[in-house]
Amino acid sequence: MQNNPIGIFDSGIGGLSIWKEIITLLPNENTIYLADSKNAPYGQKTKQEIIDLSVKNTDLLIKKGCKIIVVACNTATTNAIDFLRKNYTIPFIGIEPAIKPAALKTKTKKIGILATKGTLNSELFSNQAAEFSENIEIIEQIGEGLVPLIESGKINSIALDILLKKYLFNLIEKEIDYLVLGCSHYPFLIPQIKLIIGDKIKIIDSGEAVAKQVENILKQNNLLKIKTNLGNHKLFSNLNEQIIEQFIQKENCKINFLNF
Ligand code: DGL
User: Fold this and answer.
1) Model-level pTM?
2) Taking 90 as the threshold, does the pLDDT of residue 251 lie above it?
3) Active site residue 253
4) Atom number of ligand 1 nearest to Cα 42
């Protein structure tokens, strides 16, 4: 089992931001990545729809022999991870908006969070936010429309710039000093975001922390890969596999279309 791959899924290419952190920290591990772009965005779907899609992705990763599953999607984590953990024995790692580090560091006592509607409306997020809301103000901003533009490769488009400015100006005027990226698609926008918010507002995303958590859980379960050769990576999209190539360097990677 140790030499089996780490399974990772997202509603599309967003989780590649997490995948990159995982293969950087654990270069020997093999991975299988599912980009469920056909069903993106998850952020506008009901909880039950998100659970059903997460089950479908999980079943496929288990069928492909994965030893652990990373839900590289805030929307799927906040809506479906409890269900997955209750119904499967394989270990799951999720990704949630990193409110805690922002809450501990903020000086203005105001932090902004940019995420999907599905994440911000979830019970898991509300509970997490409630833990900190006595001492700090958490300003929520739905990033509606950003994921479809990123999914279609329009990362440097005017349309994306207009949306991003609208959302970020809402947060800047509330005097936040930390911005939490609560969607795994958004780290691909960091260069544009920095141009808009400047360097007074710090950006926090969860990628590195998730990779460390993957390492810890693999260690705890005695699942770290034994062979010391460099890992290989299989990346599947059910819509447009070419888009994956725009976001990654291709060494040791096989990118394919798969109808799932
Ligand atoms: N990338 C996902 C997230 O982290 C989902 C985006 C979406 O499909 O709406 O929230």
Assistant:
1) 0.94
2) no
3) no
4) 8
